[in-house]
Amino acid sequence: MVPTVPVPRRPSDPGDPVDPVCQWYENELGWAAVPGTPVRLVTGLRFDVLEVPAEAGFPALRHLGPASPVALHGERMRLLVAAGSAEELPGLLDWLEWGALALDLTAVGAGGSVEAPPPTAGPETGSGPRGAARWLRPPEPGRAVEPALPTLSALGGGAAGGGVGGAPDLVRLVQTMATHCHRVRLRRACAQPLAFS
Question: Which one has a higher pLDDT value, 12 or 189?
Answer without folding.
Answer: 189
